[in-house]
Amino acid sequence: MMGTPVRSLDVPITKGTGGVLVLGERATKRDDILPCIKCSKCLTACPIHLNPSELGLLAAKRQYDVMEEKYHLNDCFECGCCSYVCPSNTPLVQYFRIAKTLNRERHRQDG
Hints:
Layout: H1 25-28, H2 41-45, H3 52-60, H4 64-69, H5 81-85, H6 92-110
Helix pairs in contact: 3-6
């Protein structure tokens, strides 16, 4: 379930498309984002045994360097399992992508 969600059938399939996953309206409906309830579903779902809930809390605090250094943010390959199982509807993968981008820019500036 990696990749960018597309909400229209007008988007072409190109040779770079690895697959197409079609979900029904019920599966794609997202409610409001709620605070993390520390249920650990994301921990169980993570195939590389990261701590998505802690990473998400750090992202909310904008502690991107801690995410990278202490919680191995760059090991995340953005599969989306944590976001999919989260009962709080937290868009964890989107938070991780933002953090990775900001960290890359910071490293580039630090040179």
